[in-house]
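lol so apparently i was supposed to do this last week
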Amino acid sequence: MRMTALTESVTLEHEGEGPARVAVITIDNPPVNALSHHVRQGILDGMTQAAADESVTAIVLICAGRTFIAGADITEFSSAPKPPSLQAAQVAMEDCVKPVVAAIHGTALGGGLEVAMCAHFRVADAGARFGLPEVKLGLLPGAGGTQRLPRVTGPAKALEMMTSGEPIGSAEALECGLVDEVVSDLRQGAIEFARKVVAEGRPLTRIRDRNDKLSVDPSLFTDFRKKIGAKTRGFLAPEYNVQCIEAAVSQPFDEGVATERRLFEVLMSGTQSKAQQYYFFAEREAAKVPGLAKDTPKRPIEKVGVLGAGTMGGGISMSFANVGIPVTVVERDQESLDRGMAVIRSNYERSAKRGSISAAEAEARLALITPSVDQSEFSDVDMVVEAVFEDLDLKKQVFGELDRICKPGAIMASNTSFLDVDQMAAATQRPGSVIGTHFFSPANVMKLLEVVRGDRTDDEVIATVMTLSKRINKIPTLVGVCDGFVGNRMLSQRRIEADRLLLEGATPAQIDQVIYDFGFPMGPYAMSDLAGLDIGWNASTSSGSTVREILCESGRRGQKNGRGYYVYDAETRASTPDPEVVETIRAFAASQGVAQRTVTDDEVLERLLLPIVNEGAKILEEGIATRASDIDVVWINGYGWPVYTGGPMFWADTVGLPEVVAKIRAYGERLGGRHWDLSPLLERVATDGGKLQAATGA
Ligand code: 3HC
Ligand code: NAI
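anyway here it is w/ NAI bound
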């Protein structure tokens, strides 16, 4: 058997003789067989040669490595397209007079699935997954996928797949006709399938010619838009994907493809898709730690301890149990333990009721969590996560105790939101094994994990925790020690300015609306009410010196007692602005000598977002964050900054740094405050005509 190299990533070989002679085109373009130009060229050349070779009866397209083609090469998006086009390779497959079989393992995503849909047949192994995830990059499938997928699966399923970007598995693909056969030995199975097709003389149907599933009631689209409206608020791409499927059912194939091309170009040239593509790489970069050797040893984490079963400890325990890691959770007394375990149980029961996991799975996960009031149960855990009250003295004491109990080598992590991890490390004999793991609330749901590197944290411990983060399905970002780390330190600056705006005459509802309209899930005051207005509030020291203190003193606790910055309906939890709160703020402003006025929405937005950008630049300059893009990853995953604007650093670039700098200066002069002191790094990058998103830390 002779193998011919067609390009640097594609080979052609032949299997069998006579009517059993099958050409096998193999793509090998690590890491994910993306459709780089040499792959497109290889498919085209392979198809042309195999089609012209009279001895060949059928053609199999298969990939080496971990996956089938995972899509277009995203790194090529920013440069001019290099021939041949993907369409040329697709036409060569679709119009071939010999059967073409795509053999799929791993993930057939985006352009990968669009290529596979140009084969006459698709076989896959049981673990393969199929999807059009372009929407996650702010795009739509641009190689005929929007017109072919609905022809295979029907428009309803295509709507789901294309607007969510989520893949389906082999079994579902077989059921909806996307796959013709599931085989165990992919290469051999695909070759045998091809031979069978030849022997049976099966017709070679092109998906583009199929119209059998396209008759639908137009209400499908109206209803679907309603269904996804809230989830896709602010995003352009989901709507454009829907329009393409409407085109598929109402226009002939070629016209539909023209519609797809037109809408694709609009998205591709827009800011949203640039932001989402930037985010795709930012998330992957964030997991990498500069200076940490790839082969840094990692400690095995087979069993974990969590101290404190409150709001965070419960969610953290679930995050481990959800991926099969046994957890021992320890509380200070039986009553607190029972309360914490009851919340965990009810969360699992709710998931089972909603159908996101089975009842048996919920029980299995719960069974992995062992409750206790005895810290000595931590003697055999590989890592303990401390989630007790936010009190440095308490944390130092607890770290000293845990150090005596935990076995040598066990990692000790703190979930503190603001406090100094180095001081906790100093309370132990193992400062190298101490690290921060700052989960976000609710910890079992939120994806972000700020991994806080202490002054003395060992590389091995950093490597272990970064890897563990991925294992528990979190998006890790390595940050340094400072008050509030990256996210909360920046958030605090926003809060200072929001509270000032309240006194000047903006209302909680106005501020929240502006932030919501920018694309956040909620504004600062709705968030306070949700978290509990009294978090960090102390009745014995409260002196009516802020709006929040006054509200807490008057018994307002936020959503939990139905009254906070808003009032809440007991049944629906719907919020309504409360004139009493507006009056409280007005009276307080008057007592402080602050004159109230009408504040414009534009001013609200600038005064809330610009301090975030400015603080981010300072954080970068101090080396608390490694890269600007890490800060964007924190804000998108920890606070719901809309990914289609790329995060605060990317957003500042799109506004234009000279304008950002001028506005920060002007507000600083007018309003004063450390958070308006211009970051020297920001000033420098703006003066140099550079981009904040590309800036790196100290
Ligand atoms: N282009 C270029 N590089 C890609 C890529 C792509 N489409 N997909 C992944 N990579 C790179 C990643 O950046 C990463 O590089 P690194 O190791 O240097 O950081 C490497 O491949 C491995 O990726 P992951 O870390 O994500 O590996 P996983 O195993 O966790 O996931 C995956 C693999 C499921 C394939 C995931 O990478 C993924 O979802 N990729 C994107 C798929 C996608 O969006 N495809 C559609 C592209 S757009 C398109 O096809 C347009 C068309 O319609 C014309
Ligand atoms: P919480 O008050 O809900 O829970 C703390 C729990 O710790 C309580 O159940 C308490 O009984 C227990 N506890 C106190 N001392 C203990 C001890 N010595 N031994 C065992 N258990 C003890 O507080 P929450 O919100 O869960 O916060 C915990 C930590 O997580 C804090 O450091 C906080 O800053 C941080 N955090 C909180 C977030 C939030 O949104 N609530 C978000 C991210 C971090």
